[in-house]
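thought: fold this chain, then report.
action: predict
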Amino acid sequence: MDIHFADWLRLADIEDCQGDGDRLQLRWSGLENSIQDISSDQILNLALLFYRLPIDDEVADEFAGFFKDEDNTFPMIDNRLYLSCLAGAALGEVIQSQPETTEARLSALAVICPNCMGKNNISAIEEIVRRSWNALHSESASLRDLTKHSLNRSSVPNISTSLNSIKENFEVQTQLPQAYAPLDKILNGLAKSIKQTNQNNKYLNSQLELFREESDILWWLTTAVSKKLSVVFEDLNWPATTVILGVELAEMVRRFPGPLSYKELLARAIQLSGKEENEMIKISSVVSKLEKEFSSELESLYSENPALSLCPLIKSLVRSRGAKRQAEWLQPLKQEFSISNTTQFNCVDFAMQIYLETLLLRQFNAIQIEGE
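observation:
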């Protein structure tokens, strides 16, 4: 059991486990059952529950069922705050118990994105958000730590000596059984060699992907030209520049969760656009200046992605495409994520949020493709 579990329940004003160690353990058992062989869709649903975003009652009841199975007194009515806390704890446990896995990475992004750089005050457990940030940064640093990875020599067995032994045994029919031992030695040696070679190739391919990612980003910053619009950063429509830079950096990521220095990279890109990195912007200003070509591509790429429900900014950009009035997309943004037209973002934070949301959408797509 996570040492913070009881505290998380207390923070959410859930008192039915306070002073009752047995019931607390039952809650934890239900939580562990809920994340066994967890799927990408289940991770998204946990995040929706955690932030109390719109979700089907059947999905919420299914999650509650894991706790009802352990304790028949678990409430099934008016339990959304309770489920929110338990869902957050479940995501935290996935991140903690399965470090540097696709499930942990998706869970971390699914927690971070709806938080919207701290602008969303709906989540009850800030520790889960901090754990998610730490997990992403730790994995990114680990990918690039060459001291943790190395090539191991593949030892090829001495085949000629073993073949001579097999030949000698075959020449004497009574010694045929003795021929199997050197043959087995050859095959086992080759199998080990092939396995090590495959591991080395996998490592080299991963390093090549990292080098290509870093090279692409370096050329992007050196030229200061939008990859999608073929326009220099300075000529992009400010403040929509923040969206274009965030999306383009995320789409250059080849190894999730991307470079550890993404904040500094985006800050540098904003400087190259001729703006100060401490400038404040509002989402309505971004929407009004975003090129239709770019917003149309966002819609075509991500409008059907289930993870879009956890992406406040990109979801609003997509919603605004067909809206006749500003309120049609601003009102849901405020209701779901506590972000209004008066909410101001630091421009680097806004670009970071777009970057992280794009990573979440791409990571979910990648999981779906692998599963096909």
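thought: worth noting. Residues 159-210 form one domain.
final: tokens above.
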